[in-house]
Write a structure and sequence with these properties.
Pfam families: DUF397. InterPro entries: DUF397 (IPR007278). The chain contains two helices and four strands. The protein is of the alpha+beta class. It has one domain. A four-stranded antiparallel beta sheet has the order 1-2-3-4. β3 and β4 form a beta hairpin. The longest helix is centred in the last third of the chain and has 12 residues. The protein is globular, with a radius of gyration of 13 Å.
Amino acid sequence: MSADLDLTAAQWDRSSYSDGSGGQCVEFSRTFAQTHGVIPVRDSKNPDGPTLIVSATGWSSFISTLIRGGFRAA
């Protein structure tokens, strides 16, 4: 995965689990999965801040685990 990935054309989607009051806002861009095989993830409250770049396979595994409830707090 390249650190030089140009995200200016990214189309960002907000997670359906993000609350509407400005907290816990996670955005991701599906558009890069098709062209680059990665999913950029960022905090929507800080769109110019750091972006986590995850492989499409890793993102899929992460989302599948969330759906199954694999990350429940103890």
